[in-house]
Amino acid sequence: MDLRFSKEDEAFRLEVRTFINDNLPADIRERSRLGYAFRKEDTVAWQRILNKKGWAAYSWPVEYGGPGWTPTQRMIFQEEIMMGNAPEVLGFNITMIGPVLMHFATQEQKDYFLPRARNLDDWWCQGFSEPGAGSDLASLKTAAVRDGDDYVVNGQKIWTSTAHNADWCFVLVRTDPHAKKRQEGISFILVDMKTPGITVRPIISIDGSHHLNEVFFDNVRVPVKNRIYEENRGWDVAKYLLGNERTGIARLGKSKERLAYAKELARDVQQHGRPLIEDPAFRRRAAQIEVDLKALELTQLRVVSGAKANAGKPDPFSSILKIKGTELLQETSELVMDVGGPLAMPGWAKELSAMSNQPPYGPDWAPAMAGPYLMLRAASIYGGTNEIQKNILTKAVLGL
Amino acid sequence: MDFELSEDQRLLKDSISRLLSDTYSFAQRRSYMAEANGWSSKLWDQYAELGLLGLPIDEKYGGFGGGPVDVMLVMEEFGRVMALEPFLASVVLGATAVKLAGSESQKSTILSAVAAGQVKLAFAHGEQQARHDVTDVITTAAKDGNAWVLNGAKSVVLHGDCADKLIVSARTAGTRHDASGLTLFLVDAAAAGLARRGYALRDGSRAAEISLTNVKGELLGAVDGGLPVIERVIQAGIAALAAETVGCMEAMHAMTLDYMKTRQQFGKAIGQNQVMQHKAADMLIAMEQGRSMTMLAAMMVDEEDAGERAHNISLAKVGVGQAGRHVSQSAVQMHGGIGMTEEYAVGHYFRRVMTFEHLWGDTSWHLSVIADKVA
Fold this sequence. Notes:
Shape of chain B: globular
CATH class of the largest domain in chain B: Mainly Alpha
Mean pLDDT of chain A: 93
Order of helices and strands of chain B: HHHHHHEEEEEEEHEEHHHH
Largest sheet of chain B: 7 strands, mixed
Number of domains of chain B: 3
Strand content of chain A: 5-15%
Shape of chain A: globular
Oligomer: heterodimer
Number of strands of chain B: 9
Largest interface: A-B, 53 and 49 residues
CATH superfamily of the largest domain in chain A: Butyryl-CoA Dehydrogenase, subunit A, domain 3
Radius of gyration of chain B: 21 Å
CATH topology of the largest domain in chain A: Butyryl-CoA Dehydrogenase, subunit A, domain 3
CATH topology of the largest domain in chain B: Butyryl-CoA Dehydrogenase, subunit A, domain 3
Number of helices of chain B: 11
Order of helices and strands of chain A: HHHHHHEEEEEEEEHHEEHHHHH
CATH architecture of the largest domain in chain A: Up-down Bundle
CATH superfamily of the largest domain in chain B: Butyryl-CoA Dehydrogenase, subunit A, domain 3
CATH class of the largest domain in chain A: Mainly Alpha
Helix content of chain B: 40-55%
Number of strands of chain A: 10
Strand order of the largest sheet of chain A: 1-4-5-8
Distance between the termini of chain B: 28 Å
Largest sheet of chain A: 4 strands, mixed
Number of helices of chain A: 13
Number of domains of chain A: 3
Mean pLDDT of chain B: 97
Low-confidence stretches of chain A: none
């Protein structure tokens, strides 16, 4: 047992960090540091910079245009991206649809979609959840009926992140309403968002941002050749997709960066007449987060080092990483907001954007402090609520 | 010991509850927010007619002569609907300051105008650099002949954008963190040299940044003797916000229970899962503990012993802050995606409770005040 990174890994970390420092536009970095979400153009611009370097598809093998990194290198890369306030590569493209295409798609589909996904020529989104199918995903109802060489799709998806930015959507549809088990009779199809009959309606989140959408399908014709894998076997594809990227979900680098940012700000604001960083309560809180971060980091490394053995299979550890990782994202964003105090409270979101051309009402760190805290309440809901994750643990691991 | 409400208090609670249930649906609230002031001027007049705007004001100034428990009852009802009107700013904070510090003539002119709804007050004490520290004031007031002239800036002044008169704290002696040398002034909102920039807080209620450049002010209370008044005004504000938080918690808990019974997943209502049931029970526990602390805060507002009063108000601020955070985070979590949306009320309650917690000392600030006295 040796818990240290190898010399090669440390050199790799430095190489990534240097590249980010030298190539990330300063305004993108600064906006992220202050707590603003990345804009579409930020994510696109940065992913193309990375793609030129050969790093955008960071988890892909060389044959598909990835760098062919080890699981440890991938983890280091992601962490440096987050700690450097760079936009994360678009997960829908790189860690979700990419591996699915590599594993299940025809050569023609791979040749067309993979390079475009890598360079973010296509922005992908995920059409899984429905109004009646959230935690209980297999109860989805959106129907696809064969008509010649097309499926005709009718139904509704919800919580579709970034659908308003997207060019393509991978969608779970019901192709056999009479299947014995609900998980059977589902197919996985790729839908061009420009197809007639698709309506995207924004859902504004409690931080005032537009991230989520409802997507309505009204007689949308999707060529049968855009189906991935066999008809009625889409659940297998979805399971592969969800089980594939198990370490990214914790977003540990983001929590580390937020803790560092909170400490930095705590030097500049005060509590009881002295810098907040000297306040014993603040110090204990930061210390507790540091303990939890370290534990999660090592747990994640244990998963990463065993990754090859379990590739493509759901792993109970992904539930542990999801639960602890999202708790830390929430705690660190809460800490940043609390450092701001009353100055973090102004900002009815709609008004904030209208005010963006005016001088700030206070320090430049203040307006975007509460937004991430609000938005990250969703972290314990999306991707399988933390309650569902615990159900997975009790059933799959504990056998209860 | 008696936790029962008097007959008058029950009537008060019922009448405000009836008024708000007819006038303050979530959709109606949205329309009030879109009004020029960000709240309903029509309802404000109705509050005045009901006598609510004179609730804690002496009868001899045209008020109702109520006490902190009456304020608690009303704030709880306001919390349940997330009322937007400047009741806290004008009737609780402003009137308390005038009551404690004002001369007889100031009391009789201002308090009667507040009770009648003709004048709205705001309490302009906090400053950007101060964060939660009460004595951190750098705004100055200096004597120019017979007049006082104020210079500086005030931050996150609740309903400071619509107030007719501001009660401004300023330094007449000492330096930044000194406890002595603070003085209160009445400043006309239209006074020359006063500029204000109004905005909505995260919860949709209004506040303002206020700058003062050679602004004339009228002395309110003793020169250099402002701090005890400032502290009591804030304590009355904390007690009121605690009650409003309880109202928010009640609403969130009720919405969550409702959702648990109706939302179906895996072929049954999600409320049939024991993990959800325990979470709902934990919310109830937090809410009732918070309610107890709110009662404590209300009982302490008129406590004469300053140390006892401050200590117990800090206990209540921590207790209610933690309860509010727990209940609102649970409410969003148990709703799932829908709880994260602007279209649904639970997220609005969440933000309201979050905003309250960050005013006048957050949980950590008050906990450290208590911790410093552990012996």
